[in-house]
Design goal:
Distance between the termini: 48 Å
Shape: elongated
Number of helices: 3
Strand order of the largest sheet: 2-1-11-10-7-8
Order of helices and strands: EEEEEEEEEEEHHH
Radius of gyration: 23 Å
Mean pLDDT: 74
Largest sheet: 6 strands, antiparallel
Strand content: 25-35%
């Protein structure tokens, strides 16, 4: 098979209950607990999206931290499957997660990450999910005769987003079936 160098690889998002390896790591961030220890607030917040971030004192890093105790090439944070990992780059002072020195570890919501003397808190951004729930709710409000606030399935779920989305799927499928039936019967 001949590979075309002009083709870009695509990230696929897996449906619930399918292989997690297709789901990208969620957008996340590392937030410095003492940003005043950084010059010009550079590195106060490290945004994590689809690519790895190298961290260190050296100018060739994605995030340059000119702080004593941070090695030239200190650590890297990278996505793998559906999670974020941090890996120490053989730094002099090590990388610690929740107080323990680590070589490589998966990050979880609320973990504290120490890079030299700097302490960061890892958090997963939930804004993309909130905005999709808001869009689904706005769409549902436009369906004649459907009030998501009064729908029992919506009220019983945790926030209503799953029930609301399934309601939209059922209504959409019903509308499609009706349209196909109408066209076929004409």
């Amino acid at each position: 098979m001949i590979e075309d160098p002009n083709l870009q690889s695509k990230t696929m998002i897996a449906a619930p209950g399918t292989d997690r390896s297709l789901t990208p790591a969620p957008e996340s961030r590392l937030t410095c607990t003492e940003p005043s220890s950084l010059s010009n607030n550079a590195g106060a917040e490290i945004l994590l999206n689809a690519s790895e971030v190298t961290i260190g004192r050296g100018d060739n890093n994605d995030l340059v931290l000119k702080v004593d105790g941070v090695s030239r090439k200190h650590a890297r944070v990278f996505p793998h499957e559906c999670c974020w990992y941090i890996e120490d780059s053989d730094s002099t002072n090590g990388t610690r997660v929740n107080g323990k020195t680590v070589d490589r570890v998966m990050l979880n919501e609320g973990d504290t990450v120490e890079i030299g003397p700097l302490v960061y808190t890892f958090s997963i951004d939930v804004q993309p999910q909130e905005s999709s729930e808001k869009a689904a709710l706005e769409f549902a409000r436009g369906i004649p005769g459907f009030d998501p606030q009064r729908d029992p399935a919506y009220a019983e779920s945790s926030g209503g987003s799953d029930a609301l989305l399934w309601s939209i799927v059922v209504i959409g499928a019903s509308a499609l079936a009706f349209a196909v039936f109408t066209i076929v019967s004409v």
